[in-house]
């Protein structure tokens, strides 16, 4: 299984740049880039901070996806 997220679409729909969003949650822009590409899995604390900023449940932002073989 692979952890997938909707961070990029949610961030864009709010009109925030990667830099603005990074400042809101206390990480670097590079972390946001990696998160949006799916190459970084956030800690539970970071995932909860992201959910708080978007005012959504964590599971509506992050979800498990079957990996194709």
UniProtKB/TrEMBL annotation:
Gene3D superfamilies: lambda repressor-like DNA-binding domains. The lineage of its organism: Bacteria, Bacillati, Bacillota, Bacilli, Bacillales. It comes from Exiguobacterium antarcticum. This is Helix-turn-helix transcriptional regulator. Residues 7-61 form the HTH cro/C1-type domain. PROSITE patterns: HTH_CROC1. The keyword Nucleus does not apply. InterPro entries: Cro/C1-type_HTH, Lambda_DNA-bd_dom_sf. It comes from the Bacteria. It holds the Pfam family HTH_3. Keywords: DNA-binding.
